[in-house]
Structure to design on (473 residues):
């Protein structure tokens, strides 16, 4: 892992980076910022006050807080913090943020005593930044924090809608998003059918993304994200060629903006950009566990479960009789502050529960044998980077796509596609802990990734070409 940063170079080019203010987006953007800094660029980070990262971890960057400096602005008060509603800020800032972003960029561009700005790099979901950048004649690259496969599916949503794949979403996604689960999806044979345009997907995978059929504001953001990512000056992906080769071919064929696939967790850990305090007290316990004996359980930074399904989780985990390390964020169980729903004495001595962990470090630990994940892209990719097989329980958005890709394409995990049933959970955990084929495949994938980082390898070359490309702008 590259941890050195150059400190003696003359930083005469500056890059402004603007992440989406959520953990799964801040992490790869700050990893990218560190990487570009290590290549000699001067770094300015634009960020909202909401979810601001710990700036003292980045004394080498300049931070500027924008868009929500007025605490009385009612548009941004009292917005949800968990579940799909957590992304309502993204919709609002995309709607109202353009004038302020333009103003802030103009200020930066006019600074005579600072290095000149080469480009703006924003999260792909900040689609409002594209017309702003164009109006200032400033090249905008995007960081897309999910997989190439997900982008291609999102780009096909209008087509999938026309073909009727989203027809059931209005009836099904509401109970799904309310946390009632999707067991009933399997009662409908149509939902088990293959999606012609993406044969690895079932119809229910499309529906589980949670996009309603018509006039959906989320669908609108996705549509604009796709359109303006294609119009950008370049796309940076947190991935590597050997993971998504067919998808990369399609992206290169269909999008004129150059693509750069960079496996960020292999360059820098995400610890310094953690928005929550990381518990490290369990490491002495983890150090004592036999190799590959512990299941790490974590469902990312915003997912939320109802109490009934939480209890299925608890029983599934306990009945598997495996040791576990489980991250339960405060707010994860709907209606609870933390662990009120946990039955007394059930967990025994087999596991540890923490509020937040240094995930990459945990996944790299020799005692970890499997990762039960919500299939967020960072979590999925971090698991691949450490060669850890997965049990996938996706919630919404790109997660059902990542889960299907993990289990059916890469074949490095088991997808719990029928929701929260304790027996299925127990079986999946036991299977992943002992299935030699799954374990071997993820090991080979990790080795492929490690080789790609060596000079001449695809990931190594991708970093080189990104640096050369930005330098040429
Ligand atoms: N993460 C962490 N500690 C935890 C849980 C998660 O550091 O206890 C990090 C994890 O390493 C990943 C990010 O939070 O980088 C979650 O991103 P992901 O895309 O997996 O899911 P999201 O939170 O966006 O749903």
């Amino acid at each position: 892992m590259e941890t050195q940063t150059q400190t003696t170079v003359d930083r005469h080019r500056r890059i402004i980076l603007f992440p989406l203010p959520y953990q799964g987006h801040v992490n790869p953007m700050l990893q990218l910022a560190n990487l570009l800094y290590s290549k000699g660029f001067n770094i300015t980070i634009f960020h909202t006050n909401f979810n601001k990262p710990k700036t003292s971890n980045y004394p080498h960057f300049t931070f500027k807080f924008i868009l929500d400096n007025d605490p009385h602005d009612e548009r941004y008060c009292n917005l949800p913090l968990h579940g799909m509603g957590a992304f309502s800020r993204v919709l609002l800032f995309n709607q109202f943020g353009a004038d302020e972003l333009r103003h802030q960029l103009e200020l930066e561009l006019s600074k005579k005593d600072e290095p000149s700005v080469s480009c703006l790099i924003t999260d792909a979901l900040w689609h409002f930044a594209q017309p702003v950048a164009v109006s200032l004649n400033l090249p905008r690259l995007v960081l897309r924090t999910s997989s190439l496969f997900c982008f291609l599916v999102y780009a096909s949503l209008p087509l999938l809608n026309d073909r009727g794949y989203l027809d059931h979403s209005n009836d099904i996604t509401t109970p799904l998003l309310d946390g009632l689960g999707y067991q009933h999806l399997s009662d409908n044979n149509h939902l088990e059918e293959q999606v012609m345009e993406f044969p690895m997907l079932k119809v229910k995978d499309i529906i589980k993304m949670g996009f309603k059929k018509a006039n959906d504001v989320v669908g609108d953001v996705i549509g604009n994200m796709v359109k303006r990512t294609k119009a950008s000056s370049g796309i940076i992906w947190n991935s590597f060629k050997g993971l998504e080769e067919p998808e990369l071919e399609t992206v290169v064929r269909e999008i004129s903006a150059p693509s750069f696939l960079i496996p960020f967790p292999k360059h820098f850990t995400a610890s310094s950009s953690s928005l929550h305090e990381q518990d490290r007290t369990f490491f002495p316990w983890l150090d004592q566990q036999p190799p590959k004996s512990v299941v790490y359980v974590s469902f990312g930074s915003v997912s939320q479960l109802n109490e009934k399904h939480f209890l299925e989780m608890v029983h599934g985990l306990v009945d598997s009789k495996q040791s576990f390390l489980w991250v339960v964020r405060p707010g994860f169980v709907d209606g609870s502050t933390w662990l009120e729903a946990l039955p007394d004495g059930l967990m025994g001595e087999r596991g540890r529960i923490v509020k937040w962990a240094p995930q990459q470090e945990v996944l790299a630990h020799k005692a970890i044998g499997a990762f039960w994940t919500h299939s967020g892209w960072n979590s999925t990719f971090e698991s691949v980077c450490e060669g850890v097989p997965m049990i996938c329980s996706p919630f919404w958005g790109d997660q059902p796509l990542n889960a299907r890709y993990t289990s059916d394409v890469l074949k490095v995990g088991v997808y719990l596609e029928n929701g929260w049933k304790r027996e299925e959970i127990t079986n999946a955990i036991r299977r992943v802990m002992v299935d030699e084929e799954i374990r071997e495949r993820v090991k080979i994938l990790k080795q492929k990734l490690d080789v790609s980082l060596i000079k001449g390898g695809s990931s190594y070359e991708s970093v080189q070409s990104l640096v050369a490309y930005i330098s040429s702008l």
Confidence is low (pLDDT under 50) at residues 2-7, 172-186. Residues 277-449 form a domain with the Rossmann fold fold (CATH 3.40.50.2000). The chain has two domains: 13-151+213-263+453-472, 277-449.
